[in-house]
Amino acid sequence: MPAADTPHLRRLLRDEVYDTILGAILDGTLEPGEVLHDEELMTWLGSSRTPIREALNRLAEEDVVELVPHRHTRVAPIDLAAINEGLFVTGTIHEHLARTNTANLTDEQIDELERQLGLVSDAVESDDAAALGRAIRGYFLVVAQASPNSVLRAKAETLSLKLARFLAPRENLRTPQEALEFLRGITAAVKDRDGDRAGDLIHELHATTRSNFIDHFRKPDSED
């Protein structure tokens, strides 16, 4: 838990409290498994209990916080196997959607894709892990939401914030700057209506998480 004298905003609204707690989780200030006490959060954030509980309930719905009534509220532990499985599946879906839906994107959707790219760039420049997770998710949802396949749309939207927690620089993952360069290339391919090129870039973007999942987390097929 950050020290009480950490600079903070007074009279935070519910969404500001949510963004602040989420940002602290994504950048590691609040560590996986750390117990969250209302009184400590109130002191740190300078907020009343109600917006804090509302924010924690929202984070619990997104699997970022673990809330067990009458026991504890804590930052959800990171399940590496589940996260890698989620990233593996998500990468496959995004690649497929790019290959099949790029030609169908409207000019308005491409404008939105470029707007989301700008948000990713801003988050990378400001080193804002919370904003980066949201922006990358928003970027790919533009392509996903253009799909006529409701099942794939729903699956693509399950790139939740618990996956975004794993987007910070790690030894076996792309850095934020590398991810940004890939997204710039994907955007250029989409603007050219080149679905195959966009799909190739998404495939390459996910190469590290794909190999990490296969090499370390995928259970071997059972023998007949």
Global structural class: mainly alpha
Q: Poorly predicted ranges (pLDDT <50, ≥5 residues)?
A: 6-12
Radius of gyration: 19 Å
Number of strands: 2
Largest beta sheet, briefly? 2 strands, antiparallel
Order of helices and strands: HHHEEHHHHHHHH
Trace the largest sheet across and list its strands.
1-2
Strand content: under 5%
Number of helices in the DSSP assignment: 11
Shape summary = elongated
Structure description:
The structure is a single chain. By secondary structure, the protein is mainly alpha-helical. Helix content is 63%, strand content 4%. It contains eleven helices and two strands, in the order αααββαααααααα. It has a two-stranded antiparallel sheet with strand order 1-2. A hairpin with a 3-residue loop joins β1 and β2 (72-75). α1 crosses α3. The longest helix is centred in the middle third of the chain and has 22 residues, at 80-101. 35% of the residues are buried.
